[in-house]
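<goal> How does this chain fold?
<sample>
Here is the protein in question

***
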Amino acid sequence: MKTKLIAGALGAEISGIDLTEKVTADDYRGIRALLVEHEVIFFRNQNISPAQQHALASSFGPLQSHPAYATLPGFPAITVLESTADKPSKIECWHSDMTFRLHPPMGTVLRSKIIPDKGGDTCFASMTAAYDGLSPQMQTFLSGLDAVHDFSYGFKESLAEEGGRERLAGAVADNPPVVHPVIRTHPESGKKVIFVNALFTTHIVGLPADESRAILQFLYQHCITPEYTCRFSWDVDCIAMWDNRSTQHKPINDYFPAHRSLERIVIDGDRPY
C-alpha cells in the first residue's frame, strides 16, 4: 500500500490495494495501523459490495447499529445516509459519531454511491492536533473535567418534526445521556485528544451554565482551526475510514437539491477514559 498525505495534521489517500479482491489479515493490520497514524484514510475506485464493506469494518471488531437511520436490506449494520430535494440532510455541524453511546464507535467506514456533480465534500479535524495546540495550563484544567453527551440533543430537529418523537421514542429510551471525559486517552496511540462536540455535548459537569457554554464554545472553535483539518472531495466508489476517537467531521451541504447517497458502518469502541 502507498500513502499520499493530504494535509499536515491528518488525512492520507491509500493506493496499491484492491478492496474488491481477497484482503489478507496482514492487509487488515496494515490498514488499521494507517488509520491510527493518519486518523482518516481514503481509498478511491473501490466498487466494493455490501458484504465486502461489512468484512472490512468487521476486521476492526464488532459493529454497532444506529437507532435513527434506515439500513441496507440484508445488512442491518449498514446505514444509508441520503440527502434528496425532498429530504435534505439535517446534520450541519462538526461532530464525532454517536458519542451519546456509553461506548462510542472506534471508527467509521463510509462508501460513496451517489455523488452530486459539485459540492458535497467532507471536512475532518484532528482532535489530537487540537489538544496539542492548547496551552499546558488549559490541558491540565480540561483533563479534570467530564461532559454530558445526549442523543436527544443531537437529534432535536428530527424529534421536533411531526411524528418525530413517536418515531424515535425507542431510540430516546435506549440512549439516555452519558458522561465522558472532556479529554480522553486514545487506547492505541496513547495520545490525548479533545472529546467534546457541538452535536451531542450538552454541558460540562460541575460548572455553572455560563462557564460551561464559554469553555465548550472555545473548544468547538479551537478544534476546527484550519491547520488541524483536511477536506475530501468524493467521487463514486470512494471509501473514507476515520478514527472516531481522535477526529471530528463535517459534511458540506452545498449541493441542494442534488441527490447524495452514502453507506456507513460504525465499529464498536471502548468506554472513553
Observations:
- The chain has one domain: 2-267.
